[in-house]
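Trying the structure run again after the queue cleared.
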Amino acid sequence: MGRHYPEFPVVGVGGVVLAGDRVLLIKRGAEPSKGIWSIPGGAVEAGESLAQACAREVAEETGLQVRVGPMVEVIERILRDPQGRVEYHYVLIDFLCYAQPLDPVAADDADAASWSSLHSLEGFDLTPDTKRVILKAARLAQGEEIGLGFGRDVC
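Done. Tokens:
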């Protein structure tokens, strides 16, 4: 099944890789969103778990080994062509990940890889939702609630 004009949505994973107050970013080298900064990730392969896919994708795109933690968010990204046809449809499952702050090496379909301070994300042209998910993951890493939509009174 191809990713371009797919018959079904493609399941993908992303790793919000943290090392202290820094997050790992990659510059996308392929469509969709070529040239835009994002978190490392990609499609899940048949037979691998979501966590395995996340660790593999981060390693392929940056050369870094990660410890995959909890899920941060599920995002659906549907991109249409000028005629309104679905050109790309992804269901993306983003995970909080931890790594040593080693120098990343861009590879696979990443044109660049870099660490950024959580306070310097404005300097990057980020894909939609990326900054929000990164900050949500950082709050999760600090043990804060991630806002599941339930009030404290709900049983």
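Helices lie at 50-62, 130-141. Worth checking whether this holds up in the mutant runs.
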